[in-house]
Amino acid sequence: MRVEIWSDVVCPWCYIGKARFEKGLAAFAGRDGVEVVHRSFELDARAPRGGTKTVAEGLKAKFRIGDEQLRAMEARVGAAAAGEGLGMRHDRLATGTFDLHRVLHLAGERGLQAELLDALYRAYFAEARPVGEDGTVTEIAEGVGLDAGEVRKVLADAGAYADAVRADEREAAGLGITAVPFFVIDRRFGVSGGQPAEVFTQALEQAASAGALQVVGGDGDAGCDDGACEVP
Question: What are the boundaries of each domain within the chain?
Fold first, then answer.
């Protein structure tokens, strides 16, 4: 069985959803036969990498909300993260993620994709590190076992793995995915959003015997407060 997960490094529900999926997978009897593949998805392909605007500023502008509503939104997401044993800081800087996805494809070729994704999530959400900076990305990637020289070479070459990232995004569009995280099981069963662990276990069990494509977790257009982050 193959599970493909479309996600973005700066999506809080992707961070939370990955942890919940892994708990759900651990409870699935056929877990040893499951291959997990992480696919690229950019929440905002127009966002510059290494910006100085905070995520909080961006959320206020996007949803046209005030400080009180923002605090409530952050508290809900923070509580969900804490419930999975994950850290969540709210002073993160907004950044484009295309280059991060390119490095994740390099990591995939080296068998370290899940490890790098975890490290990037932790650095960004729990530590509020500037993952939009080459030096930070290289340090994080080296920490999980990637060669620093290879990482620097990819970051310096805008074409390296660019086609792979775009192919993932085209595939997402072809599947009708407009919000992440989105989990596709054997191209027959889909789960939208950072659902509870038991939902993932049930989805895996149903997908093992289901023949037709089914989608659990909404219509794919949910905002971040509903367990998924949508393209603006």
Answer: 2-230
